[in-house]
Amino acid sequence: MKPKPTDQSRVPVAHARERFLNDDGAVDDRLTGAVRDAISTSWRRSRSFKVQTDRLELPFVREPNTDSPLMTAARPVLHQLATDLSSEPVSIILTSPDGVILSRAAGSDELLGQLDAVSLAPGYSYSEEHAGTNGIGTALETRQATLVSGAEHYAGCLTQLSCAGVPIRNPFSGGIVGALDLTGWVEEGGSLLLSLAKSATVQIEQQMLANASERESRLLSAYLATCRRAPQMMVLAIAADVVLMNRRLRQSIDPQDQVSMLELAVDQTVDIAAGRRVNTLPSGRSLRLAMVPEFSDATGGIAVFHVHLMDSATTPPQRRPSKASVLPGIVGRSSSWRQASDRIAQHVGAGHWIVVSGERGSGRSAVLRAAAGQYRRGTIRVYAAGDFQDTDTLDSFAAEIDTEGYAVILCDVDEFDDDMLFDVAEVVQGREHAGWLGMTLSAGDATPTLGATLLPFFSHTIEVPPLRHRIEDLQVLVPTILRQLTRGRELDVAPDAMRQLSKYTWPGNVAELRQALRDVVTHHRSGTITAQHLPPMYRAQSRHTLTRIEALERDAIVRSLEENGQNKVAAANALGISRATIYRKIKEFGIDM
Question: Is residue 544 scored above 70 in pLDDT?
Fold first, then answer.
C-alpha cells in the first residue's frame, strides 16, 4: 500500500517549513502556531549542522554491537513488539546513544524499501548532526520522548514518515544509553506510536535493571572468588558503571593512575590482545592487566583482572643496598646489561621479592644468584623447574620456606604445570615477610595460572637483555668464558674470530656462546683462536655486526613473520613497512625463513 496524500491539517506545517527554509530561518508569525517550539528549535540546529534539505547523505559509522548490554536487554522486548505489530506498517528501531541504528524490524516490505532509500538501516547514524530533525536524533538531542511527523522533518525525503523516538536511560546512572523509535507512514503515525514506544522503553529499562542486578551479583562473586584464591594479589573487577578494587590495589596506585588503569581495562575488554602489552601510567610506573578468563564474561559485560606493577628505570627502589652493586662473577660492559644488573642488585639488597625475566641462556639466573649471594645472608637455595618432578622437592621447598630468614630462588617457573603453581603458591602464602624469594621466567606473556598464583607475590619484574642486544659484551664475555673453560690458561682470540662471533645473532644467548667456545677449546687448547677454529655455523656469517637498534628491528620482523605464518606481505603490513623494505631487511639481517 502506497502512502496516502498528505492530510490538509498538515499543510500549515509544510508551509512553515518552506518559509523557514526559503527565508533564511525566519518563521512567519501567522504560521508560528503550526510549528511546535521543539520542532522549530530543532530546525535551527539542523541548519547550523548544514544538513541537506533535499537529500540525505548519511555516513555508515560502524557495525552494530549485537552483544552490548542494551541489545541484550532490548532483544526480548523488541521480539514481542515485532510480533504484536507484524501486520502493521510500522518499523521498530533501536539505536545507540549517538544515533547509530543497532537493529531494525518491520512487517511491511514497502516500508522497509522506503527506509532503505533514506539509509534508516543498521550502521547508519540518524543523529540530528547528520539527518536533521527526526524522531531518533531529536529525542536524543532533547533527551525527551519526541514525535516528528511528516513535514516536521527537516529533510524532505523523510516527510512521508512519522517517527516516535524515546531515549533509553541507564536505570542506575540515568545516562542515555540509546533510543527506541517506531516509524510508520505519516498518515498512520501519531500519539499511538509514541505511547507504544514509551511503554516498550519502560520494559527495556526494567530488563536492563534486572540484567544489571544479575551481572553485578556475578561480578561480586567473581571478584570475591579471585581475591580468595590469591589474597596477596591486586585485583580489579569492572562491569558497566561498577568498579571493584581490593585494598592492596587501592593502596598501591594513586588516583590519577587509577583513572588511566580503568581506561586500559575497558579497552582490554574489547581488544583481548591488549593484555599482552605493558602500559605506562601517568606517574611513569609500568602496568600490565591480566584478565582472569574463568571469571570474565565479555558478552555479559564482566571483566576481572590481576594487576601487575612492573619495575622501570623511573621508579627506583625506596632503599639502596649499602654495598656497591658490582656483582661478583657477572661481566658485561653494555649500558643495558649494567642497568639491569644494578636494578636487580638494588632490589635484592632492599629485600624486595623480584622476578628476573629474559630469554633462555641470557644470564637471568646467574645475575639473580650473584645478587642473592652478595646481599642475602646464609645459604641461597636454588630450585629448578625440573627438580619439582621429584615429589620430595615440594616438601624440601616447604621446609626451607618455613625457616626464618630464608633465601630461595625458583628458576624457570613458567615451566611449572598448573597444579605445581598452586602448590608452590600455597606454601609461600603467609611467609612473605619471613625471608626473601626470587624467580626467573622467560620473557613474554605469563600464563593465566602463573599470573593468578605466584606473580602477585612479586612487586618488581626486571628483564635482562638478550645477547644480540648487547653484542659489545662479547669483548669481555669471550675471554672470561675461555678462562673458565681452560681453568685459567690464556687463549687469545684473533680479531677475525671476534668479528665473526659479533656478526652472529646468538638465539641461545650466553649459554650458546659458552657451548660454542667449549667446542673450540676441545680442539684448540693454546695459542690464538682464529676464525678458522670456530664451528662452521659461526664462520658462515657474512652480515655486519648489528647495532642494538638493528637487533631490535630484526626481532620485530621475526616476531611479525611468526605471528603472520611466515607471510612476508602480511608481516610488512603489520609492521607498517613496505613489502620491498621487509624483503631487503630479511636479506640484510640474514633472517632464516
Answer: no
Helices in 402-535 by DSSP H: which ranges?
418-428, 448-453, 474-485, 495-503, 509-523
- The mean-pLDDT minimum among 43-47, 67-71, 237-241, 346-350 falls in 237-241
Q: What is the mean pLDDT of residues 70-83?
A: 91
> Average pLDDT, stretch 166-172?
86
Q: What pLDDT was estimated at residue 77?
A: 94
Please give the full DSSP string across 355-413, using - where no structure is assigned: EEEE-TTSSHHHHHHHHHHHHS-S--EEEEGGGGGSHHHHHHHHHHHTSTTEEEEEE-G
Identify the burial level of 7 via C-beta atoms within 10 angstroms of its C-beta, where 0-12 means exposed, 13-18 middle and 19 or more buried.
exposed
Q: What is the DSSP string of 117-134?
A: HTT-STTBB-SHHHH-S-
Asked if 97 and 126 touch (Cβ cutoff 8 Å), the reply is no
Q: How far apart are CA 242 and CA 262, in angstroms?
A: 11
CA 287 to chain CA centroid, Å, is 12
3-state secondary structure of 65: coil
508-518 residue pLDDT tens: 999 999 999 99
CA-to-CA distance for 112 and 193, rounded, in angstroms?
A: 17
Count of residues making up the chain:
593
Domains and CATH numbers, the chain: 8-210 (3.30.450.40), 230-310 (no CATH), 352-360+382-465 (3.40.50.300), 468-539 (1.10.8.60), 548-589 (1.10.10)
pLDDT at 577: 86
CA distance 379 to 384: 16
Element holding 169 (H helix, E strand): strand 161-169
What predicted TM-score, i.e. pTM, was given to this entire model?
0.48
